[in-house]
Write a structure and sequence with these properties.
127 residues, mainly alpha, three-stranded antiparallel β-sheet, 5 helices
Length: 127
């Protein structure tokens, strides 16, 4: 792979690894301390669904195979709820269904990651 970067510009891969370093620091310094990688991925799935404007039911979340069997996903959802990362609320259209949404803490966490992404994308940003 050849690099035709103007002098002083860092290759895009540098920005990616700066982002990884910054986001790892955010996770380790409290934001997601104690949350394993699978729970984090499930939280990202909930956030991505919410960001797309999709209403995600508990049953819909349980179909997220990357987090395990439906029973395992349900336990993981309970754990994320107990830790304050998600909220589970009754669906207004169907009282039998429950919807999963991000909590305010999760929104703050994703806002920190977005800021980290912007910082990492700036040339000459600290590593």
């Amino acid at each position: 792979m050849s690099s035709h970067q103007p002098p002083g510009d860092k290759p895009p891969i540098d920005a990616y690894f700066r982002f990884l370093n910054i986001s790892q620091t955010i996770r380790q310094e409290g934001a997601l301390a104690g949350v394993d990688a699978v729970d984090q991925r499930l939280l990202e799935f909930v956030g991505a669904s919410e960001h797309r404007g999709e209403r995600l039911s508990v049953t819909g979340a349980m179909a997220f195979k990357a987090a395990g069997s439906p029973a395992t996903v349900y336990r993981r959802l309970q754990r994320l709820r107990e830790r304050g990362w998600i909220e589970v609320c009754p669906c207004q259209d169907d009282p039998r269904a429950k919807l999963v949404t991000l909590s305010a803490s999760a929104h703050d966490y994703f806002a920190q990651l977005a800021a980290a992404l912007r910082l990492a994308d700036q040339n000459g940003a600290p590593d």
